[in-house]
Fold these 4 entries.
Entry 1:
Amino acid sequence: MNIAVCIKQVPVSNDVTIDPLTHALQRESAQAMVNPADLYALEAAIALKDAAGGVVVVFTMGPPQAEEALRTALSMGADDACLVTDRAFAGADTVATAKALARSIQAYGPFDLLLTGAETSDGATGQVGPMLAECLQLPHVIQVLSLTPEDDAPLSLTLVQKAACNAVRLRVMLPAVCIIAYGANTPRLPTLRSKLAAKKKQITTHTNEALRLPAASVGIAGSPTEVVRSFLPERHASASMLTGDPASLAQQCLTLITQERGNR
Amino acid sequence: MAGGICIYVEHTDGVLEPVTSELVSAAQALNAKTGWPIQALLLAEQLEPLLLQLSSMPFHSVFALDTKGLSPFAHDGLSEAIAAALRDIRPNAVLIPASFHARSLFPRVALKLDTGLTADCTALFVEQQEDGTPYIRQDKPSFGDQIMVSILHKQNAVPAMMTIRPGVYPPCKVQSAISQVIHRLTQGVLPASQITFLESLPASSDADNLSGAQAVLVVGRGMLEGERLALAKRFAAKIDAALAGTRPLADEGYLPFSRQIGQTGCTIRPQIYISCGVSGAIQHTEGIQDAKLSIAINSDPNAAIFSTVQYGIVADAGDVLSHALKLLEEK
């Protein structure tokens, strides 16, 4: 089974401030990591490959340093990696991101299954997975807890989808996009050996010269939405604030609970 | 017909989701400034009971599509059906609940309609282009809840599609009936799907206890030091509350993911919600809806959680809980 996994490199910390003069966003942390939700997608892909055979290729769209995220994925057990990078892709919203990733995947070669993480820790829209499916005209399922290939032709798999607080079993025809639920598995850790091997791996790079997406479809130009302002949230504590020493606060708490239960 | 504010209507077991009424409030605020009529888009296998419920709400038009034969899980086919309906309706804006299914369906719909989708808006404002044409500015949190951003759809990105979190807008006021037109959409053969529903799986007892719990005690990162988590467990047991946690607690193995509340975890509707050491990042608060009593204990007076609960306590949660346990044990 040939599996593509799309990941994103995100800042380690979400701490940001707004420059009081320029109103520009400043990230406090220059450190980056693989988006935590994507680790579950990587683990799902590598485990499937271990069980069913095949190849896992990891894709990411980002600036050149996003290559680090690909190295982490390789060190977990992915076979190959592709960096989708071009100045023209900068400033992309979810639509432009999905289009670039989809084009790269199509250019790379046929896959049976595409996996992504549930959402990024910075943007947290959860949109790119479903949009990728739309670009590639494939079915998609979100919140996937587990995947089981079926021995059929045409290829299909059954999966368990997390729904609110229970779960359902679905069958999906391949190729398909599966968005893996946060916490669905236990992502394996790289070993020293696998990290060293990952360092030496040749990574494919796709710039727009290779992908040939029209200028109107990429980066800021290709984004139907735009952020026009960043600002600090106003915090008005709208709660009624209780006061007193801890003992009094505890009593007030218990009284509120008893009253609410008495109201039923 | 074109040029309205179209609300995507969600429903479970023949009953409208409460968020529908909240989106109507949002639409009314937009309508007051733009004059754009308020519309409902309803896709269901059993339309009549839902149409009846919609008839007492202030929609100018209701567009209804019978989706018998298309599973609610067939998001490939369903998103195509929704896009086709919106191409007929041609609204200026689409308001969508930021819910489990909609979050999966509407990214595809946006691409099909060659427009954009703003996720998890917390406020909407009407502004004007130079020529006086109104447009909607959408505010939402970013980077956790560290900052807010304002987002616009570009002029050629129509309709402006946005998801709105439940609990952001109040339910709409009940009004005397306005004349409402029902349009039954026909799409001939519904789109095919590569997805088949096989079976529902019984919830794990953990998840089951959480979703049915009348009272929930949620612990956040602030509870990881010292004895606090143990205190929380004892207190939860004493007041007969289910114990749950924010994502960092599940990430670090203190609680299973089935006990995690928030955008990537469970969404629950307990009667009583008490949080300890929870900062109130939006990815968590989204997981709690409609609690009758909500109390937050956090030592940080600026914690975002204090904007989302009824009662706030600025204190060390460990102190408060140990006193509360003493009081309960005295009885």
Note: Residues 19-34 of chain B form the longest helix (16 residues).
Entry 2:
Amino acid sequence: MALQIPASVRSKYIVVEQPDHPSTFDGPDLLISDKKGLLACFFVRTSERNNHRSFFGRVINALIAYPPETVMVLLAEDTRPFQQISADYPLNFFSKVVGTKDLFKPNLLFKEKDSSRKIKDLKEVQHKVFNTQSKVLMNNLSYIQDKGKFNAKLGKFDLGHKTRYFDPLIQKDVSVRANIFHFKGTQVGLKLLHRNASDLKELRPYFEFGANFDFQVDRGVPYIKSISKKILNVDNIPKTKFDPYKPIRVASLFGWYLANADSLEEIHRRINNLNQ
Amino acid sequence: MSIQKKRIETILALLNAEAFYTRSIRNKIRAEFNQVIEVEHITPARRKNILKILHSTRALDSTLKSFLDHYGIRNGKHALGQYLIQLAYHNDHRIGKISNNERAQFQNSIVNHRNTHLHQADSYPSNDSEVSQIICEMETLLSRVLTL
């Protein structure tokens, strides 16, 4: 969807298309901001219509990372872009569902303030998630330092069955698309990073899995009992040019501990280290 | 828009909606972030890199000072490491706190690295990647503070 934001809106507000937040792998399609508040606007991209977990993965990531008072808005000319999901679903994730014409009056949308209870709950979730992220990130950086150079030639090993989990949006058990396996009580992901592709994009399915697996959204709050421990076995240290740590930062947000293991024994050791 | 500019615009959009981000500091913070972009073509590289860290630091320190003063929890502290302690251990129930793990993480990734280059004579970041790392960690801290 190409958004035509009027000049009158751009002159009065700060407008950022495809914003780049330090702690999100993707995020809202548009931010509109002034002293009255912050709008984070999403629309369902063509590529997401057959992959609702991709869309909701980035919504959940934004709910975690953006200020709790952010008004999350769904831009939808089509009230039901996901046929398998009930028409009520937007109410669970967004403060408001609007057509693009409503973007011309952000002032009215700023009034859609959330309850103090919701903001309190959201802050509690954010505190828990960022505390966990910090621990995982420190562990990952320490692992990278101890490991030194990553082994770029990893062998293949059998981790059994791919992970399955219950998707509350379609009320069904689903199997993950990415290479993520349920192994010894831990989710283990395997990824060979391509040299000519963005590591952040390559790891996106793993971030989406983390968002959909561990979080359950209720009235705009991504509730969580705890972030499950996960091992992400990669052949290279994931980096991006402008924000070198970003892939590791976002991976840590979703509980992924990095590994560069060339055998099942090494995977075992990494899992055992985490359990100590 | 370059990736760096997109990141700065995102941070400024987040700040714009905050009560503590008053008119008096808004232009100053934007000016400092703009300098991070404008010094990109300065040579030699080590001069460019130290200036990038300097301007990012000034943006971060001023924003945090304004935030802490708005909630009355700065308690006379002046340095970034002390600001982190205030963010972790203040007693104001109106806002949240960062955890001690986060405090330690940012102390290591920002304060320790930054102080080495800003306080030690003839010390410069070794490459563009190190500079980007420090600046992006500052932006991460800013975005985290706005969730409190």
Note: The mean pLDDT of chain B is 93.
Entry 3:
Amino acid sequence: MLYADYPLAEQGGFADFHVSLAPPRSLRRWFKPQVLFLSDGHSPFKPLPLDQAFPMLEWGLNWCVSSHANRYLIIHAAVVEKGGHAAILPAPPGSGKSTLCAALVNRGWRLLSDELALVRPGDGKIIPLPRPISLKNQSIDIIRRYEPGAIVSRKISDTIKGVVAHMKPPADSVARAAETARAAWVIFPKYLAGAAAHLEALPRSRAFMRVADNAFNYSLLGTRGFETMAGLIDASLCYDFTYSVLDEAIETFDALKPPVPSM
Amino acid sequence: MTSPPLVIQALRQPGAMASMSLADWDLLLRQARRANLLARLHALLDERGLIEQVPPQPREHLEWSHATAERHTQAVHWEVTMIQKALAKAGTPVILLKGAAYIMANLPSARGRIFSDIDIMVPKDSLNEVEAALMLHGWAATHHDAYDQRYYRTWMHELPPMRHIKRSTVIDVHHAILPETAHVHPDPEKLRAAARALDGYEDLRVFAPVDMVLHSAAHLFHEGELEHGLRDLVDIDSLLRHFGSTPSFWPELAERAKALELARPLFYALRYTAFILHTPVPPDAMEAARAGSPNRPALALMDSLFARALMPDHPSCSDRLTGIARRMLFVRANWLRMPPLLLARHLFHKAFISPKTE
């Protein structure tokens, strides 16, 4: 249901990762059943209750990319795009990034990723990875109310992140998965009950450090990581963003002006 | 077995990778990743200017592993500098072993290698100073169990691994290349006497070329966990190809193996690199090494065990007997480490008395 718009792999083709979900080979296969995530037959995590199989698949897929794709600077952030300009939303857990991201993609913004921003060194373009958007706890009902037409999986309780569900990505985002984008804005969202939507300009040096904090492989990439990050920040307008009402947030985003290219 | 696994074919003939199908690449990458040889494939292709000919999707994966390998190389340089600083006052000769040695000596074997611990060798009677100096500079002991401590210090050839508190890097301090309790005793003094200086690092040394090969062979063919055996075999192959271009190398290798009581591992090393990786070993070198061969039936058994165990630990490279082969070689390795009675006592202790790790 959530993957309805994706093409099926051909037999005898190439896959970046071979993943599977399987029951463990112990008693836990039957007793309080568990499930394992396997990457090419190898299990990188401890098993989870069988009920959590789908979120485990999604987390596993993110793990595959973030542990291996070391040619890109990988930032823990959502990325959305409109009119040829992308907004990177880095955020530590609990900042409302996924809710905001889910709302934006239901109002005309393209989804590149809800978790992992892959920035290509060299040209600084962002590589899309559109997949079901993970929503937690209250976000699930908020998004269901905000966009009743959105397809959301059933809620799964008692996971490490609380209650979890996934929203189907827009068909257009999936269809355009091969289309890279250039970042124009780096925006740190923060949901604050009762707050009016407000953008606060962030000095680039501060933005740099905060994005680096949210990057998985910044130090692994060494000099190249630094240069890629610098290029990204230099070419973007950086903001702190507080909001409480989704409609106001969407308005603010729609009104964003891209940076003027410097000579 | 039918045709050898793709990763073996790629190692034998790197040029052939340029014309592989996508489906083959899919499997090759998975085999190589499991064997820790993905970055090595990148290095082999890069040396031949063939990276651009790899289709974009597999090429991505090769670039990913290359980024990681580069980082590891850089980290080793830094770590070795830190180790040199820490041990400068201890006033004892320090020899870098294995991967760290290959990198610092700029050997082709270093290309595409991923590292975990750094291994060094120091004289046995300076172990205390070395340990103290390392602790002063931030390395802390692991293995706090009293039994484990005794295992390492009394019977093995190394201190328990030490982990740096800030950098989380691990250093293994050896005083010999094989355990005291093993039945052969390659003399560390002989190894030290032949060790070579490192450019730019006055207090650090590396083994002479023949000793590098013999150490790698001794390590591989005394080792119990062969899941990364292929990577070690690739190391040996690379060293042989690099040093083997000097004609005097081969006779010296056989001589030295005898002097260090390592004739058996040398025999296996030459036999299996030639057999599996098609390493160009000169016929008279092979002949000279034959002195280290076990008897015919034992050799037939070893051939069937190693032919399987040295393959990558991936379903596409295994057959029904691979699991048993690895287990038998594991038992053999433990057998080689310690006399039977001591081994029995050690295994009993480990199984029933040692605290379990969570």
Note: The CA atoms of residues 11 and 18 of chain A lie 13 Å apart.
Entry 4:
Amino acid sequence: MAGLEVPRRIRGSVANPMPSSSPDSCKLPRVAFSSDLDQITRAAAGDRAAIAALVHRHSGGILTLATRMLGDRAEAEDVTQETFIRAWKALPAWEPRAKFSTWLHRVALNLCYDRLRQRRPVTGEDLPDRPDPSMTPAELFDQSQRVGVIEAEISRLPERQAAALVLCALQGHSQAEASSILDISEEALESLLARARRTLKARLLERRQTT
Amino acid sequence: MTTHITHARLIALIEAYGADPQAFPKSERDAAAALLAESPERFMQALEVAGDLDGLLAGLQPEQPSSSLSAALIASAPAPRETVRRRRFLPDWPTWAPVSAAASLACGLIMGLMVAPATADITDTTTVAVDMAFGADWLDYSEDAPE
């Protein structure tokens, strides 16, 4: 499909949407749509099959982004719902100047930023000292601890670093798409990613050393 | 497509994108892979550090929406727009126009019937009109042949 860029970790297509993660939630028949725009146009007209297809295609990615950014599943679900409410309002006037996925992620990210700023005062990004290269985070935690610790530390990253890391390293968005979502250049994205990885590693090391 | 990258650039790519060249920008992937193959020992430490973090990140699973969340997202979408059937009679006029016209006609007919007398003597007028048209003695005409 021309113009359709599928993130590396997410597979599927417009004609064959990803299997629903919750098949019992919607028993509407699967419909093949001729294009993204067709699906959006139908959803804007209230076509339930098109609406369900959009939800199934994008809700997982939005929920993942929000959960990693906020570190709280319940809050992430609120953000996901708010994101889609805004999407439904925007659909009737939708013009395909940007990919729907890009726009949706941008809305979700801004909602996450709003919530994060309500939680804590805005400070400058902290660049940690270079970590000791002889130690690796994988050596510091056992398997059962790792996932929770990493999730917590990602949500503690400066928000733009967290966003870049989640979009690229976790969701597999290309540099072009991630920089479009973040509304920055690809060079700026690369800088954010490098800092995010450095910050994350330093904080994981710091955690281990204090336990 | 970049055909050659420097040692420093490859280190920068590893630090930003991780140890897997498939995560590098498309335009630099081939050149990066070539340099790695050429002198892997120069990048061993950077790859090990980056790969370690990659492994930790890979352990994070994507979030799956619950059935209740999916249902809520679908339910929050607007209901289908009802299609308005176009009238055949005066389609471009407002709805009240033909109704109003029909009501006016009905009222007029009723009023006319109520006001007009039950019988009307129209013979005088009719007789004069016919006399003028056919002659005064037209009533004497008979189909029977004169004898």
Note: Confidence is low (pLDDT under 50) at residues 141-147 of chain B.
